[in-house]
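> Could you send the Thioredoxin domain-containing protein prediction when you get a chance?

Sure thing. Input:
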Amino acid sequence: MQLVSGFSCALVGQTVLAWLAVFVSVTNAVEVLSLTPSNYAAATANKIVFIKFFAPWCGHCIELAPTWEQLASDYADGDNYLIAEVNCVTPETESWCSDAFDIEGFPTLLYGDPFREGALLEEYLDERDYDTLSEFAEEMFATPLCNVDHLDGCSAETKDKLEEYLRMSISEVDAEIERIEAKIEELEDEFEDAIDDLQEKYDEIATEHQIYIAGLSKEIHMILDIQEIRKKAPSSE
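Output:
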């Protein structure tokens, strides 16, 4: 009887400890900052960001939520970085997510310099387990911020380029933007032409392949017909 009581007490003790662990985990958790058009500029100023864009009904978003909350909790005390999230299906954020950040699916993780909203952010495409995310965040947050307001965080080459732009007049800046946009359009056209050439070559190879296979198939059918005729013919033996 004492053995049963002791065993029961042990089970109760383990259960209490388990619930205490859950309670401590929940109470120590840091709520992930929710970004909106209203607070984005102030919340992200002078910080490198790692942002989750999600929809509450999205299954993959629900699965990622505990990991993201843990990540935000572990990196909650940084002065120069921020882990946050955006609920993209509210009246305030729906068009903002698509227009400013080009969000097309959930969850999408963007990181980098929040300057001019999504202009300089890049998409995170690696694994989404905690260890991989944490390792990535650790490395990213150790990189100094580099933009016109933080030249000290830029490489010498980038700093020289930014300072060159800062010395330009408005008309010169406009001309430089037009030049770069024209170059981007030229590269896009070259890419499309290359894709068209590849498609044309693929179609040519595919056609030759189909003709060759059709010829071999016809040859096999002729051989099978001959075999069938021979099977039906009287034996000469």
